[in-house]
Amino acid sequence: MSSARPGREIDTRDGLRALGISLVVANHAFAAPVHGGLNLLFLVSGIAFAQLCFGGRDRSVLALQVMRFARPLAVWSVVLCLFWFAVFGRFDPAELFMVSNWFTTERVSKFPIWYTQVMLQMLLGIVAILALPGMLQQLRRAPVAGAAGWLAGAVALAVAAQIAVDTDHLADKLPHLHAWNFVLGWLFWAVLYAREAIGVDRAVLTVCCVPLMLVMFLGLGVPGAEMRVWVAIPATVLLIWAPVLRLPRPLAQPVLLIGQAVLFIFFLHYPFLLAVRTLLGGHLQPLALQSLQFAAGMAGPVLLWAVVTAAQRTLAHARMRRRKTEGARAGREQVVSV
Predict the structure, then answer these.
(1) Are residues 70 and 214 located together in one domain of the fold?
(2) In this structure, what are the phi and psi dihedrals at residue 195, rounded to the nearest 5 degrees?
(3) Helix H or strand E segment including 148
(4) What digits encode the pLDDT tens for the residues 35-44?
(5) Helices 225-241 and 199-214 sit at what angle, rounded to 10 degrees?
(6) How far apart are CA 312 and CA 320, in angstroms?
(7) Cβ distance 98 to 120 under 8 Å?
(8) Contact of 298 with 25, CB cutoff 8 Å
(9) What is the pTM (predicted TM-score) of this model?
(10) Secondary element (H or E) of residue 235
């Protein structure tokens, strides 16, 4: 009798989502810069956007789906902006209205708000273009060609902007410089998820993506280009060729939890880092302190996510039981009245 294969299967996108947010926290916890995490999140977000938003047949459905996609990011960002404004006694209207990335790299909020700003600004531009007659229908009719065309346009825009305008003082945290990374996710959706992908599809996608990333990271000289290459390219190739990962169960469960708690980690890791730094900063060696900051920045938000999720499920079950009880009572009263 053959024994079952050990381990648990997870979607590779969940694995990349967990890796991406872990690198973001590591970048803030450790003294040495850790790049590439947000590149993975842009890619996976692009895939999710395409799956969610390109199923509708008209522009009104597209607008609703984009609002559904952007709402958690936008609401969390505004609420936490106001929180950090209150904590530090400072108010920045440009930051609150998600446009400060065009003016400065300084921020009041203690989370990577530039990612939110870039994402929301990109979505506004994308929706404006897709709202033009025939644009959405063209993507639906020929998703691979449509996504490839969008990617070519986004790459050309980024390259032209880098050549024409020096935005180093803004750390290049602008939507037109990151749109290619997000739209690359559309091409992944079109090739790998909108249809049944075969080996040739995966090979062509690999041959296209690897040189593209080399050019966009190394050729344009983005900060931390070498590390982005070593992080993003292997992860991208893994996603192309292994849509499902089989991990040992003790590893698979934390990966899934981190992948599901990405928003909590993204927005809430800094207070845990700050607490560790404040309480233990004078008592630990730098590497030990930084490692503990990373552990707290990951574990704290995941635990909060678990508590909130459990509370939501408990409330949902309570509402369901109440509706059933009220329905049964109404049925009995109807029988009695008859």
Answers:
(1) yes
(2) -155, 175
(3) helix 143-164
(4) 999 999 999 9
(5) 170
(6) 12
(7) yes
(8) yes
(9) 0.90
(10) helix 225-241
Are 238 and 277 found together in one domain?
no
Task: State the total domains in the chain.
Answer: 2
User: Which helix (H) or strand (E) segment is 247 a member of?
Assistant: strand 244-247
Residue with tokens 């989502």: 17
CA quadruple 106, 111, 115, 117: dihedral positive or negative? Answer: negative
Q: The tokens of 73 are what?
A: 């990011």
Residues paired with residue 10 on neighbouring β-strands, in sequence order = 245
User: Is 42 in contact with 35 (CB distance < 8 Å)?
Assistant: no
Contacts 24+ apart (CB under 8 A), 192-198: 192/239, 192/240, 192/243, 193/47, 193/50, 193/51, 194/50, 194/54, 194/143, 194/144, 195/143
139 falls within a domain: yes
Per the listing, tokens 């810069």 go with 33
Is the distance from CB of 80 to CB of 111 less than 8 angstroms? yes
**Same domain flag for 132 and 157:** yes
Task: Give, for all 338 residues of the chain, the pLDDT tens digit.
Answer: 444 567 899 999 999 999 999 999 999 999 989 999 999 999 999 999 999 888 655 666 788 888 889 999 999 999 999 999 999 999 999 999 999 999 999 999 999 999 999 999 999 999 999 888 888 888 888 999 999 999 999 999 999 999 999 999 999 999 999 999 999 999 999 999 988 899 999 999 999 999 999 999 998 888 899 999 999 999 999 999 999 999 999 999 999 999 999 999 999 999 999 999 999 988 889 999 999 999 999 999 999 999 999 998 888 888 877 776 666 565 555 555 55
b or e along 195-227 (b: 16 or more beta carbons within 10 Å of the residue's beta carbon)? eebeeebbeebeeebbebbeebbeeeebeebeb
Chain position carrying tokens 């842009």: 42
Question: Are 81 and 112 a contacting pair, CB within 8 Å?
Answer: no
**Residue 237's domain spans which residues?**
9-251
d(CA 72, CA 57): 24
Q: Are residues 183 and 282 in the same domain?
A: no
The torsion angles phi and psi of 248, rounded to 5 degrees, stand at -55, 140
